[in-house]
Write a structure and sequence with these properties.
Layout: H1 2-14, H2 20-30, H3 36-43, H4 47-68, H5 70-88, H6 95-110
Helix pairs in contact: 1-2, 1-4, 2-4, 3-4, 5-6
């Protein structure tokens, strides 16, 4: 399950680097939890064709992540934002300072949501 989750995250970031068919097959596999047989039937290809497409697409996504690291950087940023929130949640500060801090943290968290991928 963790492997599918990771593949889905990579797909979210780098899907534009794949062909339309690779995207479709990988989405069915990761998002819809379809079996190879189900995807093969939908796509009109063999189970082996589905497996080969998943293997090639997954390899391409992992290689891109190794080179670019967007998923890793997003996870690091999310962890740091969480740590800052936890560190300062009970700290005494003026209301306007707390509002400013929360605004900055929300803006940082939203950076990745604005991205359209590569």
């Amino acid at each position: 399950m963790e492997r599918l989750f990771e593949l889905g995250m990579l797909l979210d970031r780098y899907e534009q680097l794949l062909t339309e068919r690779q995207r479709s097959i990988l989405r069915q596999y990761t998002d819809e939890n379809c079996s190879l047989a189900e995807i093969a039937e939908r796509e009109g290809i063999s189970r082996q064709g589905v497996r080969d497409t998943i293997t090639r697409g997954s390899k391409q996504l992992h290689e891109t992540e190794a080179a670019v690291g967007l998923v890793r950087k997003e996870a690091r940023q999310t962890a740091l934002i969480r740590a800052l929130r936890n560190r300062f949640k009970d700290a005494p500060m003026r209301d306007e300072d707390r509002a400013a801090l929360e605004g900055y943290l929300a803006e940082l968290a939203g950076i990745w949501e604005d991205e359209d991928g590569i």
